[in-house]
């Protein structure tokens, strides 16, 4: 059982749970684990979002790295995918992003990336924890005299990330430009607050921008990809062609079409897959998503001669499948889209540019592209069960029969997904179907049955 790392790095309340002392240990142990096989002084990059605690955590992180003997480049406020990209671009030994993604400002977090620009594995996280808790081992990892590391600010590296987009999108945007095409951008007062505007300006895309004045506590506050209401109103009030919303650390993107309808991660996967397939650029004509992807995406894939592969919930499992079997497009409903030909992590700005590219190249409105997928209503209910029995639902005959009966009723136009929680005494019951009222009733009945049998 891991003590510090969760499904997406370490994430806690800053300065009370994620203390400077803990951060120092994480840095020192991480520097050792991620660079112990190198024969040179390691270089580690640090990026952060706009939270008030960011510089506090950054300072403790720097101290831990320098104490070990690693050199540090401070990137300042920069999206998670930018740090991942620059790690590879600069041949750094590792990087760290200080962010709690879509959480509110009082949280902060630490995400490690390997020298390949990918989130580190569970195994490496466990090894870091072992070193952190080893006492004497951590004390041994102390550089002396001329071996102490040095840090430097490298804020100008943001321009390398801007150039990355210019290199890949400048020509296609220029060749398909429309004077009346205007995009609304919501940067969630987060890590994309500066760089998104730079990218859109460099590419010559007309835009209006909101929620780009971070004050340390307004990150994700009624804005960004977790709160689309403000962007929807902004798009409709200003008669914009498209709205784009990023999350706090910039690895997710969701969109609003010109009619005010949401374009979620499943629809983004469909739109981008169609664009790539048409050019012969979709590897093995396959999309990788999670078990939570909407049935509508599955039907879209079948109707368009595509394969949809589904993994456990979590972008790391999507990426693992993509790397294992050579696929280049995957993602989640949340808007965490991975385009492996460009970057080995979700990238909100990249995703938005792929959507804009598809709109301009097809000469269609955002709503027309969004309509290629019919999303089915989904209902999710948590059944509270005995923690020792939450994996026993497959063994209970009455639960199995209830699930099979529902699936027979749906006849391909609905789906039942049962998923035990990894951390709580819960079994999650998710049902999809055409009738919201009906599936809500059935999900509650199934949850009640699971609670009765597994307590």
Describe this structure in words.
By secondary structure, the chain is of the alpha/beta class. The chain contains 15 helices and 18 strands. Helix 1 packs across helix 2, helix 9 (265-278) packs parallel to helix 10 (295-303) and helix 14 runs antiparallel to helix 15 (436-453). The two termini are 24 Å apart.
* Count of extended strands: 18
CATH class wording of the largest domain: Alpha Beta
Percent range of helical residues: 25-40%
The helix-and-strand class reads alpha/beta
Q: What is the CATH topology of the largest domain?
A: Alpha-D-Glucose-1,6-Bisphosphate, Chain A, domain 3
Distance N to C terminus: 24 Å
Q: How many separate domains make up the residues?
A: 3
* Tally of helical runs: 15
CATH-defined architecture of the largest domain: 3-Layer(aba) Sandwich
Poorly predicted runs: none
* Rg from alpha-carbon coordinates: 23 Å
CATH homologous superfamily grouping of the largest domain: Alpha-D-Glucose-1,6-Bisphosphate, subunit A, domain 3
Strand order of the largest sheet: 1-5-4-2-3-6
Question: In summary, what is this structure?
Answer:
With 455 residues, the chain is an alpha/beta fold. It has helices at 20-35, 54-68, 80-89, 122-132, 136-140, 158-175, 195-203, 229-237, 265-278, 295-303, 315-325, 348-362, 366-370, 397-410, 436-453, and strands at 10-13, 43-48, 71-77, 94-98, 107-113, 151-153, 182-186, 206-210, 242-246, 253-257, 262-263, 286-290, 307-311, 329-331, 337-339, 378-384, 415-420, 426-432. The chain has 3 domains: 10-153, 3-Layer(aba) Sandwich (Alpha-D-Glucose-1,6-Bisphosphate, Chain A, domain 3); 159-370, 3-Layer(aba) Sandwich (Alpha-D-Glucose-1,6-Bisphosphate, Chain A, domain 3); 378-453, Alpha-D-phosphohexomutase, C-terminal domain (TATA-Binding Protein).
């Amino acid at each position: 059982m891991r003590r510090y790392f969760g499904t997406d790095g370490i994430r806690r309340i800053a300065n009370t749970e994620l203390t400077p002392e803990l951060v120092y240990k994480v840095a020192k142990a991480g520097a050792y684990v991620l660079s112990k096989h190198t024969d040179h002084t390691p270089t580690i990059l640090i990026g952060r979002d706009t939270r008030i605690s960011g510089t506090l955590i950054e300072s403790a992180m720097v101290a831990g790295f320098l104490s070990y003997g690693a050199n540090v480049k401070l990137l300042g406020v920069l999206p998670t995918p930018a740090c991942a990209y620059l790690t590879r671009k600069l041949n750094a030994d590792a990087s760290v992003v200080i962010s709690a993604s879509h959480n509110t400002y009082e949280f902060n977090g630490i995400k490690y990336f390997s020298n390949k620009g990918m989130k580190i594995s569970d195994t490496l996280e466990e090894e870091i924890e072992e070193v952190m808790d080893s006492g004497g081992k951590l004390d041994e990892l102390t550089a002396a005299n001329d071996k102490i590391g040095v840090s430097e600010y490298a804020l100008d590296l943001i321009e390398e990330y801007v150039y990355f987009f210019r290199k890949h999108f400048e020509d296609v945007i220029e060749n398909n430009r429309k004077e009346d095409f205007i995009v609304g951008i919501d940067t969630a007062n987060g890590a994309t607050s500066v760089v998104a505007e730079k990218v859109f300006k460099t590419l010559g895309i007309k835009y209006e921008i909101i929620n780009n004045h971070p004050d340390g506590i307004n990150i994700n506050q009624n804005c960004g990809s977790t709160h689309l209401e403000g962007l929807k109103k902004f798009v409709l009030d200003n008669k914009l062609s498209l709205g784009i919303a990023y999350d706090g650390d910039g690895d997710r993107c969701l969109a609003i079409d010109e009619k005010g309808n949401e374009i979620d991660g499943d629809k983004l996967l469909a739109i981008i897959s169609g664009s790539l397939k048409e050019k012969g650029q979709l590897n093995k004509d396959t999309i990788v998503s999670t078990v939570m992807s909407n049935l509508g995406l599955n039907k879209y894939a079948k109707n368009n001669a595509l394969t949809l592969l589904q993994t456990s919930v979590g972008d790391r499992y999507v990426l693992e499948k993509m790397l294992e079997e050579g696929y280049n497009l995957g993602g989640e409903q949340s808007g965490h889209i991975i385009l492996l030909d460009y970057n080995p992590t979700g990238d909100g700005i990249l995703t938005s540019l792929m959507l804009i590219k598809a709109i301009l190249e097809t000469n269609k409105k955002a709503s027309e592209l969004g309509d290629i997928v019919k999303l089915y209503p989904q209902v999710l209910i948590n059944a509270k069960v005995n923690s020792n029995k939450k994996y026993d639902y497959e063994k209970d005959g009455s639960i199995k029969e209830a699930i099979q009966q529902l699936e027979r009723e749906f006849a391909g136009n609905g789906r039942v997904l049962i998923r035990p929680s990894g951390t709580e005494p819960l079994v999650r019951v998710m049902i999809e179907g055409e009738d919201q009222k009906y599936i809500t009733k059935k999900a509650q009945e199934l949850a009640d049955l699971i609670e009765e049998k597994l307590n």
